[in-house]
Design brief:
5 helices, alpha/beta, 7 strands, five-stranded mixed beta barrel
């Protein structure tokens, strides 16, 4: 372990990074898509360092064996507790952490970013219209043209619920990585609450409330006509 331990940890960490970024989309649970090339480069670098370290350790071990053979003492054994260093790296490789969910959304109180009231482009055609939660909330709070009025809208997110039983369609927004995530949410009416943390697609119509840009207009409200369970998307976040 004294010789090969650091090399083994580097190989496991490199393998975990490559598994998440090169061989799957797991990295989207933690960072934005644009950072993928850097993750792959980091994984390759860690892996190469581990391999080189193992080769160097092998040469040193052979030299040490010759010295031990000459003086009759064993210098190769290190403390066994050092193997515990492998556990976090092995866990990262075999059991990647899940994406942030309702617990993180509830800890980070949903807020809205102040913007100026103005006109927005017309919604695209189609019925229903698919929107991101961030776009829905921006239009609900600041669109003086009320472009969402009388349109059927569909959005996807996970379920959160407050102490009064009101449930929300929620999505976490990240600018760079999961560490800077903030939540966005829409109050859902006219439909029973699915299980917290489950992913759903909700179709319905916007319910205008309060003056544009006021606290009374937050959170925006959607009257649901259809709620369907869906699989968690590969990228569970919206770009903040």
């Amino acid at each position: 372990m004294r010789r090969y331990g650091p090399a083994l940890v580097l190989v496991l960490c490199g393998g975990a990074v490559l598994r998440s970024s090169l061989f799957s989309e797991l990295y989207l649970r933690y960072v934005q898509q644009g950072l993928r090339p850097y993750l792959i480069a980091s994984g390759v670098l860690l892996l190469m360092l581990g391999i080189v370290g193992a080769v160097v350790a092998g040469g040193e071990t052979r030299d040490e064996d010759r010295r031990e053979h000459a003086d009759g003492h064993d210098h190769s054994r290190g403390p066994r507790v050092a193997w515990l260093l492998v556990v976090p790296a092995l866990s990262l490789l075999l059991f990647p952490p899940p994406a942030l969910g309702s617990y993180s959304a509830e800890r980070e109180k949903a807020t809205y970013a102040a913007q100026g009231i103005g006109t927005f482009p017309a919604l695209p055609g189609g019925d229903p219209v698919d929107l991101a939660l961030g776009e829905f909330t921006s239009r609900a709070l600041y669109d003086s043209g009320r472009t969402m009025k009388n349109r059927t809208i569909r959005m996807t997110g996970f379920v959160t619920q407050d102490d009064e039983g009101t449930w929300y369609l929620t999505r976490l927004l990240i600018s760079c990585c999961a560490a800077d995530a903030r939540s966005d949410r829409i109050e859902i009416r006219e439909a029973g609450a699915p299980a917290v943390d489950s992913w759903v697609s909700v179709t319905g119509t916007w319910v205008p409330e309060g003056r544009l840009g006021s606290d009374e207009a937050w959170p925006p409200v959607l009257a649901a006509t259809d709620v369907r369970h869906v699989e968690q998307p590969e990228n569970p976040y919206e770009k903040g």
